[in-house]
Amino acid sequence: MKTVNQSFQDEVRRRRTFAIISHPDAGKTTLTEKLLLYGGAIRLAGSVKSRRAQRHAVSDWMEIEKQRGISVTSSVLQFEYMGHMVNLLDTPGHQDFSEDTYRTLMAADNAVMVIDCAKGVEAQTKKLFQVCRLRGIPIFTFINKMDRAGKDPFELLEEIEQVLGIESYPMNWPVGTDGQFRGVYNRVKAQMEIFEGGHHGQSQVSAITGDIDSPVFHDLLGETLHKQLMGEIELLDEAGNQFDLKRVLKGELTPVFFGSAMTNFGVQPFLESFLELTLPPAPRFSQGKEVDPERPDFSAFIFKIQANMNPAHRDRIAFLRICSGRFSKGMNATLSRNSKKVKLAQPQQFFAQDRSSVEEAYPGDIIGIHDPGIFRIGDTLFENDDLIQYDDIPVFAPEHFAKIHAKDSMKRKQFIKGIQQLSEEGAIQVFRPINSGIEEIIVGVVGILQFEVLEYRLVNEYNVEIRMQQLPYRQVRWIESERFDADAFNLTMDAIIALDQDDHPVLMYQNEWSEERIMERNKGVVLQPIARRT
Ligand code: GDP
């Protein structure tokens, strides 16, 4: 057993690891860019802009991958701010790759939810929010695009509470709306913050701060706006929720910030407050027991495997979230699934398009290591003899299904290998139907573009052309039953039973009505929307 030294503890305690969730177009890319600008990681905003291309059609998306020689689907951005080491887990912009986002959220300690002030809570935000809920992590809300016309701020708070079922506490309040956004009233510091400059968002803005009653603000805002603001703040204080940090940390209360990622108004107060409120990496669970991040022995889990990070090498990178101990380059660790010793070679950190070699890393950090084909999503790696096995990463229910087979039956071997590797990477989920007359493999995906990626990659990496036929099923649920007997199961015409990649039975069906009817016919069966592999 190693001993803890002060600098190790300091490194752990200054880590803050989070991911941003949002519906496409709400401003996640812009906010990411601005956080990096304030973090000093980029001088002029705009460097991350090309990442927007990831929202376009899959063909463009793959073209970009080829040209840039790197996957646009993943990266981890690290920067220092106010003495903290901030890890921002970047997630795919395209909602068809949200399965990737779900898994990335497993590695985050906090989430920032970006909401477009004109649109409110949108479909994708809702889905991603549910995944954060599942983890019970703190969720911070950034209401974006305040420089434009939007919904009334009170209405937005109500929408968050109603639609998502989480209480909200505005940390600041917008000064001026609908094209007149000037700044915010900071409720924690009880001060006005009126922003200036920023060269249309290219550089940091400066702020005029002071007491709300100061004549400066009466003059700056004019009497009408000033009076309205005073009234709104009074209303919030009297009728709004109480701030309670414990509830924030449990994910029961979301601190809300107003701002504009485009003009940088409100970005800095948000970042600073976020860093003040969030905690360092929390203990994670290994077989029901907490593992302290400050435990000196290294441990980590794999939440993502990404192929073709560099098509020239056809390499696979496994992304590790470090949970305890210090990581150092070239160290040895045990893979808990099979107790094999592995050398953690070629560790890398990713910053937008660039990757750099890592010498050491700490709990909360994410690193990528070369995967010679031995890792799986959910694997734990640990140092020394005490077995650590972190809870597995849940498998989320796909929403689209297709049966597939190789066009050329002589290529069945490559086909099977390709399908297996892609499913290990989590790029697709594979099901084998039983008693249904369907001979082929069924592939399930969360977003329809994943099918195109599958087809493209099977041709390019495994030299296999496939025939694919989409199936009408829209839902899959894992069947929980002590003694499951497929033959005795009473199905409807529009449903089938299949086995997942771990031979766990699942029910595939078209809509809620089929589910209801099946549940009526098979009393006592429990259906789960998420599979846990262990
Ligand atoms: P993402 O899909 O969530 O990553 O969204 P982007 O960051 O790419 O933003 C989508 C669009 O909204 C882009 O045209 C941005 O320039 C614009 N946008 C982002 N933030 C703001 C903002 O604060 N104000 C305004 N007016 N537009 C914004």
UniProtKB/TrEMBL annotation:
Superkingdom field: Bacteria
Entry keyword set: Cytoplasm, GTP-binding, Nucleotide-binding, Protein biosynthesis
Family annotation (InterPro entries): EF-G-like_DII, EFG_III/V, G_TR_CS, P-loop_NTPase, PrfC, RF3_C, RF3_dom_3_sf, RF3_GTP-bd
Principal location class: cytoplasm
Subcellular locations according to the entry: Cytoplasm
Binding-site list for GTP: 22-29, 90-94, 144-147
Domain Tr-type G: 13-282
Similarity section: Belongs to the TRAFAC class translation factor GTPase superfamily. Classic translation factor GTPase family. PrfC subfamily.
NCBIfam families: prfC, PRK00741.1, small_GTP
Biological function: Increases the formation of ribosomal termination complexes and stimulates activities of RF-1 and RF-2. It binds guanine nucleotides and has strong preference for UGA stop codons. It may interact directly with the ribosome. The stimulation of RF-1 and RF-2 is significantly reduced by GTP and GDP, but not by GMP.
Protein name per Swiss-Prot or TrEMBL: Peptide chain release factor 3
Organism: Anoxynatronum sibiricum
Taxon lineage: Bacteria, Bacillati, Bacillota, Clostridia, Eubacteriales
